[in-house]
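Hey, quick one: can you model this chain's 3D structure?
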Amino acid sequence: MSNGILDNRFFTKPTDGQVLSFPILIVGGSTAAYSATLGALKGGANVCLVQPKHILGGQFTTQVLSACDDPQLEKKFNPGEIYEDKVDRDKYAFSKTQWQFREHSRELQPVNSKQVDNPGGGWVSTFATTTVVMAEALNEAIQDFLSNGKLTLIPFAEPVEILFSQSFNERRQVTGIVFQDVNNNQRFTVNAQITIEGTDLGDLLELGNIESRVGQESQNDTGEPLLPQVAFPECQQSITFCAALEKTAQGAGVTISKPEGYGIKPWLQTDKFTASYKGRAFFEQFSIFTYRRIKRLKEGDVPTTSNGDVTILNYESNDYKLGVLNGVSRSDRQKHIQQAREYTQAYIYYLQSQKLKTNNWILIDQVGELKPRGDLTWTKDGIALEPYIREARRGIALTTIVYQDTAQQYYGEQARGRCFEDSVGIGHYALFDIHQTNNPNHLIFNSEKETKCLPFTIPLTAMIPINTDNLILSAKSIGTTHLSNSVYRMHTTEWAIGEAGGHLAAFALNEGVNVRTIATSKRLIYKFQSLLTRHKIPLFWYNDVVHDDPDFEAIQILAVAGIVRTENYNHLYFNPEGTVNRAVVSVAVVNVMGFELLNPESPTFFDVPKNHFAYGAIETMAAKGIVSGMGNGYFAPSSRCTREQLTFIVGKSGDFNVYQLFGSSGTPMDAQPLKRRELSRILYLVLRSKYEID
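Sure thing. Here's the predicted structure for all 694 residues.
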């Protein structure tokens, strides 16, 4: 491996007309394409990944955005007490494989010989390293699979045709993809049992004429109240060519060439360029240079700059707003890509023409110059190989995630957005982040309230096309809308989407079923979610249950199923060591058993009136003879439930060997108060028994 690029021996170059066959084919160079590959491999499948470049990673690498857009959540255990523990945060917010990638990237880029949380030290991101470091970390995670033949990696190829089969009265089934080598135009075919759409622009949807949407929908399309009555497909998020720039001493900068037509051609106008942020000069703390800094020479909390520090230039000034890439011809797409690249070149030239100095009150002299770092972008001029893509053609899926599913304004004081029961991952970004083009029909938020987003989950059914089989949607092509995509598109969520899709493909093959069958079977959904949690993938937002918690699987599955969730929906905590009362246990047992709720006119117990949240559950349990209360007509719903009491309740709820259940879970059958983690642990075994999950 050299400079983040795998050795040639790891690449496969098909010959003209060659036909290859694999269980799983992943198409595209996105971040999700990579994580899908890793997920499918960890699921035990043989995989073929075909992508347009020879560098893995998408946003992290070829798009030069290695300053990660992370969830912006504080971890509070007690009022006023904030824990800034990145290891803990990474373990509850991300899967184990994503955590390992982040940790290894930190190891590869120490600061002053020390591993630090944020090697780059940028202020918009809590995790940033150089693109090459991230490429190396990504490569190392798949190298063994390349060496043992489980992964076939084909670079420099793009899809040109989708192959289908279709029986009478059945949906079309994707059977393979025809690719074209971008260097010599030779064509080859890859057949597969399951294909994953991992392109950054949703190109397979367009090629196969698969049900999809482009750009800003209408209210009639999605039911989102902020949208206009008419759809505007041309209203798509702007693209950006990022660039890597180093701060140098005066006289040591390297000037980029001025693009032809600078300040004259429509896409090279300089009136939107700026060298400052909110009055702060370019190199000043909390300004443009430190915004997405990916390398720093000095450790410390205050983001001052040193000569030799490197930043990623991804700022509103270099957003390209004169055209879009979806729903246009391939020639128009290439024209806009080229113009967007020249626009970033013009911005760099503009910056190098300015006097980049901080305000006088900064004691350190920060007058400096800029040097493009082409070694970090695999280009000569320090500008990315590929544009940073914010929006793709989106598949119409079994589930469409809409604005109301994640927008804070619909959930009052609650800490989470909608929790899909078929969740296969989690994500978060603080606000609906839409970078507009110059099109005047773009939706405009009327208030800050409309932009706020809550932590959310990723539904399995958003990855299944509504009318096409053997295809899994991934990256930015899942069933989102123009609005919801603006939070589901971020680095960490795209990784989660891809990883879930890769595991889904491997799981479908192992089960011998179509992915659509999994998405429509409660038993298979539970079984698949169980597999995901065993791979340490979070499915429900808790910020006190990390992925290496011994009860991670049980707590996650019971939460997603809505059986045992949180004590208070206004925070993100599970409180695993906390006790649980008799009312909560009653509701949980009724839920896990699927009993039909009774609602009698007259209460059985004096202390459980009709307006009690657990009234129906307690009445149901009483009618079935599972509970009889504490005597004298009282149930004591707020009293702590004991382990022994749960033993009796579970034993009477079904044909369960409670001694075996408690024994296998390591939970004593004594009179001690039942812990919340123990309730999840026992009821998860009940759930697995009920649905006959191995």
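One thing worth noting: The radius of gyration is 27 Å.
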